[in-house]
Amino acid sequence: MEDQINRIPRTLPVLHMQNVVMFPFLLMPLVVSDEESKLVVDYALANDKSMAFFLEKDKIHTTDIGLYEIGTSVTILRMLRNQDGSISLLLQGTSRIKMQKIVQREPFVMVDVESLTEPVEEDTEIHANRKIALELLDKIASESTLLNREMITGLTNIKQAGRIADIIAGNLELQLEDRQKILELLELRKRYKYLNNCLAELIKQMRLENHIRTNIQLEMSEDQRRYYLREQMDAIRRELGETDEVSKEILKWRELIESNDLPDNVRDVAYEELERLSVMQPAASEYGVIRNYLEWIVSLPWTTYTRDRLDLKKIEKVLARDHYGLKKPKERILEYIAVKKLRGQIKGPILCFVGPPGTGKTSIGRSVAAALNRKFIRMSLGGIHDEAEIRGHRKTYIGAMPGKIITEIKRQGSANPVFMLDEIDKLGRDFRGDPASALLEVLDPEQNNSFVDNYINLPFDLSEVLFITTANSLDTIPSALR
């Protein structure tokens, strides 16, 4: 081999690859299909079958050919031209070389190279490193079936320590940068130190992968396969110290819970649901249910109130501007607001406007909201038969949502709006429940300070809401609401 190294020409054609590092003394099958590589092979066959093999790197300058300086001289042992135009090669590494000067760039690269002589002296430390490398290789063989133990037996019979390191690096699935680094290290102590660190990291990775595999059935459905791949991704991210998308979402919810002004009991429930969410996989069916529930309880205006405008003269002007006549309803409204101004709060009475269609019942409610500087909500009760329209569905049902009371309050973003319940005399009832009975909890001042929607399942204070109802006739209003 020494004679072969001495016969390496000073100028060689360059065969370069993006994902292959060639080591001395190793055999490697290779297929080339690009025109430049074919020209390099033809030139080498026409001369002494020698080529310079270099790993490509990212180009830093436009004048840079984008190759590492340290590579390997290789000899073509076999060549076969395939029917598709590509060329199959069997290459053998000869020695490490260093690129000195670019001689030619077109139609293919040729460079002047210098053969790098490897040290042959070996001391006790190198022998110890060699023994450690073989022990680590044996552990890798026990963790994976890809490595043949016969190769380890063969390596123990090789005397040259440098050749053993190159064979190990060339036959294991190390990172390209690690392979290139090992190729560049001439000093055996540094080469073995770097190689042993790479082998130790490879063992950790294999053990981690095997640990994940042992917890998953071999016969996997599509969902199980996705779970397995996601577990691998999570394990890799944890090893790298990176935060995955699920962790980012959990962090986002935690920040929302902390930043929003929530009652203590609501905050405790939100944290409990968040803990359940953090241990679930996004593919789980309940994951979306919990996420929607968190969105509702975090975005509800639990303690958000608009400031009332209680200037009676301005309120009277607004009512007079928006509606002509209607003297008695306006007086009743002003009396209601005057009592609230004196006492600071009002508990009990609920305004109910009764009259034929088109007399301004709904519009005067909107004027009351504008006069008080409150948000206005209108909900038509005509034809409602389902109690869930008021109280919502349990969140365990598919497509469950809160009732219209909570939904409208969330949409307006205020806990003290003017809430108009239109056409209260046209409520229905059937096998799905009695909406009138559900409305009793909403309108009763003794109960509505802790109204519980079936979906939210937490008490919500409706005592600051100004409820106004409208009807065409008192006779058809359900008896529980009169």
Structural description of this entry:
- The protein is an alpha/beta fold and 482 residues long.
- Helices cover 45% and strands 16% of the residues.
- The protein has helices spanning 2-6, 35-46, 124-143, 149-156, 161-171, 176-184, 188-214, 222-240, 245-259, 264-278, 285-299, 312-322, 327-343, 361-372, 388-391, 404-412, 435-443; strands at residues 11-17, 27-32, 50-55, 70-81, 87-104, 110-115, 351-354, 376-380, 418-422, 451-452, 459-460, 466-471.
- It has a five-stranded mixed beta barrel. Strands 7-12-9-8 form a four-stranded parallel beta sheet, sandwiched between helices. The chain has a two-stranded antiparallel ribbon with strand order 10-11.
- Helix 5 runs parallel beside helix 7 (188-214) and helix 10 (264-278) packs antiparallel against helix 11 (285-299).
- The radius of gyration is 40 Å and the shape is elongated.
What is the topological layout?
Layout (H helix, E strand, L loop, with lengths): L1 H5 L4 E7 L9 E6 L2 H12 L3 E6 L14 E12 L5 E18 L5 E6 L8 H20 L5 H8 L4 H11 L4 H9 L3 H27 L7 H19 L4 H15 L4 H15 L6 H15 L12 H11 L4 H17 L7 E4 L6 H12 L3 E5 L7 H4 L12 H9 L5 E5 L12 H9 L7 E2 L6 E2 L5 E6 L11
Parallel strand pairs: 1-3, 7-12, 8-9, 9-12
Antiparallel strand pairs: 1-6, 2-5, 3-4, 4-5, 5-6, 10-11
Helix pairs in contact: 3-4, 3-5, 3-7, 5-7, 6-7, 7-8, 9-10, 10-11, 12-13, 12-14
